[in-house]
Amino acid sequence: MSLRKRLALLIGIDSLIVMFSVFVGNWLIAPAAEIVTPALVVTSIGLLVSHHIFAHFFKLYKRVWQYASIRELSSIFVAVTLSVATVGVLQLALYQVMYSRTLLITLMLHILLIGASRFSWRLYRDMKFKSAANKKRALIIGAGNGGTMVARQLLNSEMSELHPVAFIDDDVTKSGLEIMGIPVIGRKENIPTVVKDKNIQHIIIAIPSLSKTDLNELFQICSETKVKTQIMPSVEDIMSGRVSVTQMRDVQVEDLLGREPVELDTKRIGEKLTGKTVVVTGAGGSIGSEVCRQVARYSPEKLVLLGHGENSIYTIEMEVRSKYTNLDMEIITEIADVQDKQRMIEVFKTHSPDVVYHAAAHKHVPLMERNPHEAVKNNVIGTRNCVEAADEARVKSFVMISTDKAVNPTSVMGATKRIAEMVVQCMDRRSETKFVAVRFGNVLGSRGSVIPRFKQQIASGGPITVTHPDMTRYFMTIPEASRLVLQAGAIADGGETFVLDMGKPVKIVDLAKNLIRLSGYNESDISIEFTGVRPGEKLFEELLGENEVHQEQIYPMIYRGKTPPVRLEVVNLLIKELEVTSEECLRTKVLDIANFRETKLLDLLAAK
């Protein structure tokens, strides 16, 4: 129906209701009186005119009534009351008397009929979409605002495949009540019983404020039912219009392992980055590319994406250019290898960066065990090249991204990252540049992470391969780690080794079991096989050694380590030693250097 036809229809219906209310109200009060009197004609005309005026003012002709709610009902009440009150004033002015009883009956009839005419559209729509035929029976966990929103949209959506049949909520005051005709029938402990009794085919977790710990616990209960479990979209996504309430998403492993978000000191980070020149090495990698995304949010004057792989640098360049078109930011790409010192000096002198985030590194433990020379060249010599180039270019701040595997390292990768930390700390003591290292554990979804491999193995029908049943790791999401790297860089005084709070360690076998459940399978469908610990791997990772611990947090989720000092001259001698060491002896030499103190390092050199 066109807007003009719709307006004419509503005005016609309202006019009939007004006339009916006036004459029936008068007849109910005085059934023996004349049907038409001059006062009644004036009253009806006055009410008709005033009603249309107030209906227009309160937009009763422009509302979409199939979605009518309490707000629309209150608008009807106010508009009708004001129109009847206007007629009462008109009667006093013309006849010095107000027919209050007649007006009261007219008011009640008027509100009742106008409301009925409008809400009949909503009733028709609800009845039309109420049918649950061919829809999956859904259980909604959470009978608060989020759950109510989901239930309403599912009931009113013709396209939805789900029909809500029950709520679960831990609030005992809601137990036994109904919301939109849907009963609240238990707490989370009752989920398995409710699923069985109500023949539930789909579960929706609709508690936006749910903590990650509680979500994990809730998901474990739901996974026991073997029923598909999803989460409602975030409130931010719904409000921004990116998704609708009914667009449920699957539970991700990040939801179960992540922690509560930390409020960043955006002002301090902004002072460090806004309007500045920032270089990110390894910008095409998992961490480096996310650092680029996070840095771009703070509107630097120039963002330099430096990396060795042209395809990955091109990919992040295109993403940043398309995503941040509204920012006055120059984006520069530099295809360069951190192992090439002259190239690093050239790039840093050309762009004169204020801040450098050094994410370029070889990180795969088994691969580096087989290729120790490459680990030394990229992680140690590459870091030294970048550090010296930053010093020459008078960079204000240099942040190296390290790893928990640098603590008491047993692998070549961890040992080379520990030596790289030594280089950074040594240079800080003799340079105007603030050099810091930020150490954290595994990141979910990064290249080489167990998550993508497990997903591929599940897609292939299994089995999932885990090295050892007791293998434990710390995990953090890539965006979370990158944001905290920016925060650590903003609060650095120089020379620190910052350690990110990785939360509780997670058993890899538990991670595999969660992924199996999240994929809709159980362990009888996808088996888990243990393959044995690989060379260089630890069963348990550490974030700080015993002599490195500062217990207090200097910022939420950020600790400051106290690593033993080493002189730059000693480190440089050791690096020269590594450069001439044979492949057969290199692994042992790297581990010796990373684990010894300076006096032992000097003894090591003297012994040679």
Automatic annotation (TrEMBL):
Gene3D superfamilies per UniProt: NAD(P)-binding Rossmann-like Domain (3.40.50.720)
Residues annotated as domain Polysaccharide biosynthesis protein CapD-like: 278-561
SUPFAM superfamilies recorded: NAD(P)-binding Rossmann-fold domains (SSF51735)
The UniProt record lists the keyword Secreted: no
Keywords: Membrane, Transmembrane, Transmembrane helix
Keyword Transmembrane helix: yes
Regions crossing the membrane: 7-29, 35-55, 76-97, 103-121
One protein family per Pfam: CoA_binding_3
Similarity remark: Belongs to the polysaccharide synthase family.
The protein's name in its UniProt record: Polysaccharide biosynthesis protein
